[in-house]
């Protein structure tokens, strides 16, 4: 009898579980693939905002809902600045005045027509301190822009509407990378009327976030998904896909399984690098892999005021002691390219003849002895405790390589806020940087880290007079060849002579595509963030 | 009873104030600030100075504390640095998802845990006792992320029966709720079993049996009710734990719940969001404990509230 009761209870329990499972229908993997015309892509986290003036890293949606006066695109395999909202432009001989003629009849998602006043408004909005924008440096070379930011003027003097379709920028100095700056997401053009009405909701509320781009935002469920719909009145013609759905999936395994199940159309290895080896070895997916070399690199930056990195010989010895190819092969599946310079392939001004740096542990030992450390030395690197596994592994690999030549590298992890605080105060001794180009110009790499104005903020503290003078002069040089030569000279001093930075490698950005995705082109800079306009779906 | 509830609620006020004060103090003494975190690797000193000023981060912490409390009393919990949205909107947006997940998980947890504990106690020392306790132990012992991935692999990836992730339909709820429910059912089962065994030794059980009551009546009518008191305490903490957000489960199954925004608040030093989620979670914990205390009175008539 007791046995009967137990059996009944157990059966009831199982029945309960079974009824839950029975409510589910479906088939095997891949059966959940949709047959709609919506591209489904992963996000590892939500953007903080869709307003590109207020974010420094979430550019995927802004690139697709806004347009810029000019755009950065790959033309015949090379990055080029092409016309966007401007149908033509002229630059004065002294490089100070840029005049843009806008396309006629370009519509915003709210039905408004683009005018030069919208461009003037966009620049002024960026520079008004009360708007709490983050990307002011993309416009701060425009005459009077900094005066607005510092509260000394109400309007940016250097941007005026000559007529309803002509807008003119006057710069404080002839900045060679100005067009490249305008082609970044921060150069996205907003609609005055909509932006002023939306206030703080611009970039947050889908209905209020209006641009001229090929897609418009229709839904944003935080930590779940963000939906874009093709804009029917887009000036280049409506996109061939009906829309894009970005699904927020923080977990790597979940991203892979979702992709294989057909819940995603694109697997982005940048968001889930731990799953890349699986796809590289998968006979099913090998043929669906597309990749492009990223216009950016991993590199190590020394604080030249911190001991023992203040000794050039020590920095050079460390550079010789690192087997970069081995790290690339081991940690990144060989998917990339060892580099010797900072202005890498794909970036304007890249120097293919840059002096090579070889792996030579013996030479490293000799340099250490010459620097006064024949018995080796101890040094430190500080990382954030949420560092990616590739960063942690890279540091551990280097720790082992340095041990071989007598350098005892300790790795200290601190939380992100502490790390940024230390760096701001110039207290981080050695830093591993991953820098992807924001705008296609050597200025974006070299001025950012090695100029007099910025070097201390990254805890580099490198104030070489020759480099400072070259970087400042290059910014103001009108002749393109001459200014690129200045950047190359500065780069050679920084890397090959003074060893302030150790360039490691460029990696390729790999995507795996479902069979229905067509015309997918990896962005020129290798970002995850890319225009999706030309992609099509074939069910 | 009403007097007791009101007094308990009044006690919550100084506790909440103390917690907000503690967070303000801790965030103040820790190095770093949220503006640097917003900027990440793009360092722009003039922008950082402007934002610090406008976000009042240059004010002394006690001034910010006073402003925060004054605003909070008006229902304004501030504006999230990370999400650029009102904190109360973020919490209210995430909480319903957390509630759905929590209650589905609780139903599974109690649905598995209580019967398992009862059967194991009744069948003490038998094979079924060992099997059920092993099942419970497995739930408690296996890390949630592992169970989550295992379930995803079997039911979503291999069988294609359920979606891998997301939270738009009831089907999306099954896997995460089962994972959370199973992992927390083990503790309930073991607690029910232990208490049942303890209660079954008491005189009144023997008396009930000697009166000729059937075993089912003895177990469910006498033993179970009296063994539930410690279990209710455990259930209360389980409710508050689940309602404050199950971070790992929410991440694996991409559920837009409280756990994820809480973790984001911590990693991004998003002070308004962090304070908001802590206050909200604290209130939930205090309320669930209050409900548990009230439930004691119904389970054990000897407990009276003054």
Description of the molecule:
The complex is a heterodimer of chains A (539) and B (306). With 539 residues, chain A is an alpha+beta fold. In chain A, 30% of the residues lie in helices and 22% in strands. Chain A has 16 helices and 20 strands. Chain B has 306 residues and is mainly α. Chain B folds into 2 domains: 2-88, no CATH class; 95-304, MetI-like (MetI-like fold), CATH 1.10.3720.10. In chain B, helix 8 (170-199) packs across helix 10, helix 9 (203-210) crosses helix 10 and helix 12 crosses helix 13. The relative contact order of chain B is 0.14. The model of chain B has no long low-confidence stretch (mean pLDDT 83). The interface between A and B is large, with 71 and 71 residues.
List keywords for this structure.
heterodimer, A: 539 residues, alpha+beta, six-stranded antiparallel sheet, four-stranded mixed sheet, 20 strands, globular, disordered N terminus, B: 306 residues, mainly alpha, MetI-like fold, 2 domains, 13 helices
Task: Give the C-alpha Rg of chain B.
Answer: 24 Å
Structure class of chain A: alpha+beta
Mean pLDDT of chain B: 83
Strand content of chain A: 15-25%
| Topology order of chain B in helix (H) and strand (E) letters | HHHHHHHHHHHHH
Quick one: overall form of chain B?
Answer: flat
Runs of chain B in which pLDDT lies below 50 for 5 or more consecutive residues are none
Please tally the helical runs of chain A, counting DSSP H or I stretches of 4 or more residues: 16
Whole-angstrom Rg of chain A: 26 Å
Distance between the termini of chain B: 7 Å
- The name CATH uses for the topology of the largest domain in chain B is MetI-like fold
Would you report the number of β strands of chain A? 20
What quaternary form is this?
A: heterodimer
Largest sheet of chain B: none
β-strand number of chain B:
0
Output mean pLDDT of chain A: 88
Total individual domains of chain B: 2
CATH superfamily descriptor of the largest domain in chain B: MetI-like
User: What is the distance, rounded to the nearest whole angstrom, between the alpha carbons of the first and last residues of chain A?
Assistant: 60 Å
């Amino acid at each position: 009898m007791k046995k009967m009761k137990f059996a009944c209870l157990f059966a009831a329990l199982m029945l309960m579980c079974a009824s839950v499972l029975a409510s589910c229908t479906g088939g095997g993997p891949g059966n959940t693939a949709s047959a709609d015309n919506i591209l489904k892509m992963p996000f590892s986290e939500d953007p903080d905002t869709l307003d590109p003036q207020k974010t420094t890293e979430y550019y995927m949606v802004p690139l697709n809902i806004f347009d810029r006066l000019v755009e950065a695109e790959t033309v015949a395999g090379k990055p080029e600045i092409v016309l966007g909202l401007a149908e033509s432009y002229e630059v004065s001989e002294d490089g100070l005045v840029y005049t843009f003629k806008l396309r006629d009849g370009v519509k915003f998602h709210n039905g408004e027509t683009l005018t030069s006043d919208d461009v003037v408004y966009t620049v002024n909005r960026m520079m008004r301190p009360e708007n709490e924008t983050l990307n002011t440096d993309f416009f701060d070379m425009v005459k009077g822009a900094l005066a607005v930011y510092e509260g000394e003027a109400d309007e940016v003097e250097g941007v005026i509407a000559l007529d309803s379709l002509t807008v003119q920028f006057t710069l404080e100095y002839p900045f060679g990378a100005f067009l490249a700056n305008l082609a970044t997401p921060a150069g996205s053009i907003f609609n005055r009327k909509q932006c002023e009405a939306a206030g703080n909701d611009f970039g947050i509320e889908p209905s209020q976030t209006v641009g001229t781009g090929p897609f418009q935002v229709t839904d944003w469920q935080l930590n779940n998904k963000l939906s874009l719909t093709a804009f029917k009145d887009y000036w280049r013609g409506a996109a061939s896909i009906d829309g894009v759905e970005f699904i927020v999936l923080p977990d790597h395994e979940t991203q892979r399984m979702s992709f294989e199940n057909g819940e995603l159309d694109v697997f982005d290895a940048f968001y889930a690098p731990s799953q890349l080896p699986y796809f590289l070895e998968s006979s099913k997916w090998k043929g669906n892999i597309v990749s492009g070399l990223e216009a950016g690199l991993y590199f190590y930056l020394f604080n030249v005021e911190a001991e023992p990195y203040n000794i050039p010989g020590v920095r050079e010895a460390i550079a010789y002691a690192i087997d970069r190819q081995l790290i690339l092969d081991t940690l990144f599946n060989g998917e990339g390219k060892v580099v010797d310079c900072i202005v890498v392939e794909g970036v304007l001004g890249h120097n293919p003849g840059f002096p090579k740096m070889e792996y030579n542990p013996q030479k490293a030992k000799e340099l250490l002895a010459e620097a006064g450390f024949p018995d080796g030395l101890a040094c430190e690197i500080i990382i954030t405790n949420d560092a990616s596994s590739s960063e942690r592994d890279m540091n551990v690999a280097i720790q082992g390589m340095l041990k071989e030549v007598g350098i005892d590298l300790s790795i200290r992890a601190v939380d992100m806020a502490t790390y940024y605080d230390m760096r701001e105060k110039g207290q981080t001794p050695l830093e591993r940087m991953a820098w992807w180009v924001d705008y296609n110009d050597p200025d974006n790499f070299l001025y950012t880290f090695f100029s007099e104005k910025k070097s201390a903020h990254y805890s580099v503290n490198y104030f070489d007079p020759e480099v400072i003078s070259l970087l400042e002069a290059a910014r103001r040089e009108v002749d393109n060849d001459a200014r690129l030569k200045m950047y190359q000279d500065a780069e050679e001093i920084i890397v090959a002579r003074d060893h302030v930075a150790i360039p490691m490698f460029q990696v390729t950005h790999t995507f795996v595509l479902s069979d229905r995705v067509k015309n997918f082109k990896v962005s020129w800079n290798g970002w995850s963030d890319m225009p999706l306009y030309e992609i099509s779906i074939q069910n | 009873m009403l007097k007791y509830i009101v007094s308990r609620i009044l006690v919550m006020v100084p506790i909440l104030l103390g917690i907000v004060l503690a967070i303000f103090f801790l965030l103040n003494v820790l190095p770093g600030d949220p503006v640097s975190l917003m900027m990440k690797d793009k360092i722009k000193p003039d922008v950082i100075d402007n934002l610090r000023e406008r976000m009042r981060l240059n004010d002394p912490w006690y001034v910010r504390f006073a402003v925060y409390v004054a605003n909070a009393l008006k229902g304004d919990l501030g504006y999230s640095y990370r999400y650029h949205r009102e904190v109360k909107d973020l919490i209210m947006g995430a909480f319903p998802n957390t509630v759905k997940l929590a209650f589905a998980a609780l139903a599974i947890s109690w649905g598995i845990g209580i019967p398992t504990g009862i059967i194991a106690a009744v069948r003490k020392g038998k094979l079924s006792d060992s099997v059920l306790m092993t099942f419970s132990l497995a739930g408690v012992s296996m890390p949630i992320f592992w169970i989550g991935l295992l379930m995803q692999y079997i039911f979503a990836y291999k069988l294609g029966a359920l979606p891998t992730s997301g939270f738009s339909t009831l089907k999306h709820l099954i896997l995460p709720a089962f994972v959370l429910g199973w992992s927390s059912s083990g503790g309930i089962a073991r607690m029910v079993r232990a208490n049942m065994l303890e209660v079954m030794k008491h005189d009144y059980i023997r008396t009930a049996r000697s009166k000729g009551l059937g075993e089912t009546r003895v177990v469910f009518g006498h033993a179970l009710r009296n063994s539930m008191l410690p279990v209710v305490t455990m259930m209360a903490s389980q409710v508050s734990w689940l309602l404050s957000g199950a971070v790992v489960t929410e991440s694996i199954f991409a559920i837009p719940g409280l756990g994820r925004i809480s973790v984001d608040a911590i990693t991004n030093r998003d002070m308004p969001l962090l304070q908001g989620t802590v206050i909200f979670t604290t209130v939930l914990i205090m309320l669930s404990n209050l409900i548990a205390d009230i439930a004691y009175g119904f389970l054990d008539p000897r407990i009276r509230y003054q």
